[in-house]
Design a protein that fits this description.
The protein has 113 residues and is an all-beta fold. Helices cover 0% and strands 47% of the residues. Strands 2, 4, 5, 6, 9, 10 and 11 form a 7-stranded mixed beta sheet that branches. A 4-stranded antiparallel beta sheet has the order 1-3-8-7, with no helix packed on it. Strand 9 and strand 10 form a beta hairpin.
């Protein structure tokens, strides 16, 4: 199986934190950039964060200062640490392996009081 598998979603109150995990597979994980996208209710899928194979990161303006992306090549894992969450962050979050264009099934994050 080469499709990434996300986990860690759930319901959290505004101002809270969550950490999403993405378990990837395949030979080329360590060479591939990895990304997180999200799709809110009635919205288009949007870019959230990326991390290159050299560890360089890029974050969407909307999550700068609140989200952090990291990776563990030995474990073939990518993480999205989210803090100071707001209802606007409610979405299905998807992990994307650029090399091979593999998408996960997504994990739901709901921010609600």
């Amino acid at each position: 199986q080469v499709q990434p598998v996300e986990s860690g979603g759930g319901v959290v109150q505004p101002g809270g934190s969550l950490r999403l995990s993405c378990e990837a597979s395949g030979t080329f994980f360590s060479a591939s950039a990895m990304e997180w996208y999200r799709q809110g209710p009635g919205q288009k899928r949007e870019f959230v964060a990326s991390i290159a194979n050299n560890g360089r990161t890029n974050l969407a303006d909307s999550v700068q200062g609140r989200f952090t992306i990291s990776r563990d090549n030995a474990k073939k894992m990518v993480y999205l640490q989210m803090s100071t969450l707001s209802p606007d962050d409610t979405a299905v979050y998807y992990c994307h392996q650029v090399w091979g264009n593999y998408w996960g099934q997504g994990t739901q994050v709901t921010v609600s009081s």
